[in-house]
Amino acid sequence: MAERTGTVRRVALGLLVPVALLAVWYAVTASGAVPAYQLPAPDAVWRAATDLLTRGELGVHLAISTQRVLVGFVLGAAVGLAVGAAVGLSRLSEQLLAPTLGAIRAVPSLAWVPLLILWLKIGEDSKVTLIAIGAFFPVYTTVSAALRHVDPQLVEAGRAFGRSGVRLLGTVQLPVALPAVVAGLRLALAQAWLFLVAAELIASSMGLGFLLNDSQQNGRVDRILLAIVLLALLGKLTDALIGLAERRLLWHY
């Protein structure tokens, strides 16, 4: 009972700021302090959503963007986990890879767009690759740092029980580093949503990034706000799913 009460309280507190922002938004637009062409009212954004939904466009935008993010996230996180483990466990790998990856990490997302178009042409491959690049670095950084700081005594205890190599990594080192790994996955997923908008600038005709760009060109501020709200909601939903998986994994270990 106490746990349920605490959950309700957390949800209520979490909704407090969004509800307050919505109320301020409505009050500002109702007062006429800001012109409607600059800041449409919440009901105008809602009408834009229902219009796109009834025409069958909104579901397509949501589905294709979610698909791109999830595929790019899985690919980037998998490579980030592998490279992060190599760098975190091997001093030689760290000396070879860490300086170069540190430099590449500083490259802005939009700087990759022309190169990916030249290499992978205009299509899903270039978009998913850009999202995967965004998801790679948070996982790589957190995993390598977490494995590098695993207690050496735990590692020695695992070796004393005959664990080595992949078995040692899976049964001793990764479980100890699990909170940091999950934190990296959550950051990677957030980064994947950030890179999505840049990815969908690559001659896209579907997706929330396309909806943002197309609405800006046509002066549809209501649709721009709708796309921003949807990106925020999808990002929060996927982050909550990883948080749920984190609690289950931590309970298991």
Automatic annotation (TrEMBL):
UniProt keywords, alphabetically: Cell membrane, Membrane, Transmembrane, Transmembrane helix, Transport
Membrane-spanning segments: 69-90, 102-122, 128-147, 168-187, 193-212, 224-245
PROSITE patterns assigned to the protein according to its UniProt record, in alphabetical order: ABC_TM1
ABC transmembrane type-1 domain boundaries: 58-243
CDD domains (UniProt xref): TM_PBP2
The protein, known as: Nitrate ABC transporter permease
Similarity comment: family membership: Belongs to the binding-protein-dependent transport system permease family.
Pfam families in the record: BPD_transp_1 (PF00528)
Membrane topology category: Multi-pass membrane protein
Organism: Actinophytocola xinjiangensis
InterPro entries: MetI-like, MetI-like_sf
Protein localization: Cell membrane
Keyword match Cell membrane: yes
Annotated signal peptide: none
The organism's place on the tree of life at top rank: Bacteria
Gene Ontology CC terms: plasma membrane
GO terms classed as biological process: alkanesulfonate transmembrane transport; cellular response to sulfur starvation
